[in-house]
Design brief:
By secondary structure, the protein is an alpha/beta fold. It has a domain of 97 residues: Putative methyltransferase TM0872, insert domain (DNA polymerase, domain 1), CATH 1.10.150. A seven-stranded mixed sheet has the order 3-2-1-4-5-7-6, sandwiched between helices. It is globular and about 60 Å long. Bound molecules: S-adenosylmethionine. S-adenosylmethionine (SAM) binds next to helix 2.
Length: 310
């Protein structure tokens, strides 16, 4: 873990602040505190009396953020929980409605760089867990799941053909020796794939590792439930929320969740809407926003969705 956690600026902060437009006294809920980059910028604007409910599943991220949050200690409450537990967290924090909510999906840079967490290509473990660095579930799946299950996990982020090649290679490799680290896994995956003709700066195992990470943390189910919980807790008529996504699966999950919440039903647009449809939000971003040129390298894949309670 790098000693100074403040490694890079939060993505699309200017756009987030513009849309949320924090005012003194507003109640903030940050579903994914990370290094508190977004949270501190918002708390700065909600002034002395704007409470903050700050959540992160990873205790080590909360520990890193805590120092940065010292100036706001009298009006924030930290929760080391899954953000899907939002309704209980709000009850515990004694908060009825949210004025400003943010969910910045995925992992934070310190988690990726901490080799013991097993998120990166140089990892020394296979934990891949946001909540618990000693979690053995991902290692168990990778070392014991039937080939067909590995293939279906991998299929989420890549073609049938690549999934098949990788799943087969993992099964062969683990017959020789069980895998213990994400660096071993990345090597096996890279060796299983045909070399592309185009030179890419991406590690060949990027998509496959993402598939295992998503599976290990149930990231897409959590994201959908998190977006729904935020929308349901916004102050009626006024509360606003921002969701930042970083890859196409997060993008689609968020887009679909916001569409359902904004129409009040899950019926496709070409069929008549049910009479009892009850929209919770309206979208504030006709198309999700992209980062400006200034952030083109650091936050290239980020897309911002925003909505307001009706
Ligand atoms: C991209 S980082 C957030 C960065 C943050 N906005 C900042 O300004 O530093 C995502 C954070 O969300 C946390 N996280 C991911 N899934 C979570 C979940 N289901 N519940 C709570 N926290 C989660 C991760 O541990 C990570 O710290």
């Amino acid at each position: 873990m790098p000693r100074d956690g403040h490694l890079h600026a939060p993505c699309m902060l200017a756009e987030t602040l513009k849309i949320l437009d924090p005012q003194p006294g507003d109640v903030l809920v940050d579903m994914t505190l990370g290094l508190a980059g977004h949270a501190t910028a918002i708390l700065e604007k909600t002034a002395r009396d704007g409470p903050g409910v700050l959540i992160d599943w990873d205790p080590s991220m909360l520990a890193l953020a805590e120092k940065r949050l010292a100036p706001y200690h009298d009006r924030i409450k930290l929760f080391n929980r899954n953000f899907t537990e939002l309704p209980h967290i709000m009850e515990e924090a004694d908060v009825e409605y949210i004025d400003l909510a943010i969910l910045d999906a995925g992992v934070a840079l310190p988690q990726l760089l901490d080799t013991q967490r097993g998120f990166g290509f140089q990892g020394t473990s296979l934990a891949m867990s946001m909540a618990d660095p000693n979690d053995a579930r991902a290692a168990e799946i990778i070392n014991t799941a039937p080939e067909a299950q590995l293939r279906s996990i991998l299929r989420r982020t890549q073609s049938e053909h690549r999934s098949k090649l990788i799943a087969r290679a993992i099964c062969r490799a683990r017959q020789r020796k069980l895998m213990e680290s994400s660096s071993e896994l990345a090597e096996v995956i890279a060796a299983a794939l045909p070399r592309g003709r185009r030179k890419s700066s991406r590690h060949p195992a990027t998509a496959a590792m993402l598939a295992f990470r998503i599976f290990a943390n149930q990231e897409l189910d959590n994201l959908r439930a998190g977006v729904e919980a935020m929308a349901a807790a916004l102050r009626p008529g006024a509360g606003r929320m921002v969701v930042l996504t970083y890859h196409s699966l997060e993008f689609r999950t968020t887009r679909d969740a916001i569409q359902c919440l904004a129409t009040g039903h899950a019926i496709p647009p070409w069929l008549p809407a049910p009479a009892d449809a009850r929209p919770l939000i309206r979208s504030l971003t006709k198309k999700p926003l992209k980062p400006s040129d200034a952030e083109a390298t650091t936050c290239r894949s980020c897309r911002l969705f925003a909505a307001q309670a009706v």
